[in-house]
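Task: sequence design from structure.
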């Protein structure tokens, strides 16, 4: 993931992050289904999607902690 994309995740508000998290988890689910059915060509995409989910979760946690302390 490029630095620009990481910054875009950090700039989103909490509601947008939660929506993005839900979409990313749905995409990960479909990727896993495609892998099980041998339709998936790029197995690395599962790894990348998991990393994206982790980044979104980190941003959500940071925003929640900042809101709690502010």
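Answer:
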């Amino acid at each position: 993931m490029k630095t620009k994309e990481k910054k875009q995740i950090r700039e989103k508000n909490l509601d947008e992050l939660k929506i993005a998290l839900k979409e990313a988890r749905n995409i990960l689910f479909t990727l896993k289904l495609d892998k099980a059915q041998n339709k998936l060509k790029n197995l690395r995409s599962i790894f990348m999607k998991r990393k994206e989910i982790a980044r979104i979760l980190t941003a959500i946690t940071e925003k929640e902690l900042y809101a709690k302390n502010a």
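The first helix runs from residue 3 to 11.
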